């Protein structure tokens, strides 16, 4: 029986009007024979919208599964996965049940489940596992995704959307040239895409802002899709809102950072972010001295791996830099007494 929870977990998200990013859609088309696609980018980078656009443009049926922190029970996972398959195949499809005989070897069960599920489907079909970063690292489901993807026949793909970098098990697919990886650099908007998105959202009214103005917005958000859209919404509320200048950005952007990022972190990591933002750029040695945190390097690497609007240079001693809007948000938190 379908429930409210299952409806949330297994239905694709609504994205509204979409600007098609032809270059990225082309990359996904070129990777259509790869069993695994991993898209890793910061919050609001357009991961979900890209996949929805790709699937729609190619008329590819998909099974969509929204992961969350509660996904720790294999039996519940396979129950929802079976429910998600009902719009692709017959509801009475005899999928394997996680009986006691399989409890000692979930890998074998996962492969048989995937094989039976695909047997009644006509390829191409894509299985989308969204918000993978919400799955706890120690969840018993983690190794099952490797088995599920490895069991997919030709014409079937598993897409993983995450704010985090791929886990270690993806390396095996990479070694076999069986994975397509898209990261934050790939999803960063080009100037032409920013102009196209605003014109689409404004249904032509965005032309009231010159292309020169939109370019300034594009530079301010540094290719970040959600930032561009949030600034557009701020214009809708206040047409006289000035263009973003340093230290003067819409509250909608800051509210997004607060709800999607800062509030979800442990207090110690929040404090580290607020302290490290005092430096425009910094090395591990510099931030260690500033914060006096013994695990500064580990925290920085973790934030970088989780796409926390943090980049670093290559070299023997990397230099880290926060996204300018994210740094400004951190500097204006009450802890600094600036608001």
UniProtKB/TrEMBL annotation:
Protein name: MalT-like winged helix domain-containing protein
High-level lineage: Bacteria, Pseudomonadati, Pseudomonadota, Gammaproteobacteria, Thiotrichales
Organism this protein belongs to: Thiothrix winogradskyi
Pfam families: WHD_MalT
Domain of life: Bacteria
Cross-referenced InterPro entries: P-loop_NTPase (IPR027417), WHD_MalT (IPR059106)
Residues covered by the MalT-like winged helix domain: 259-333
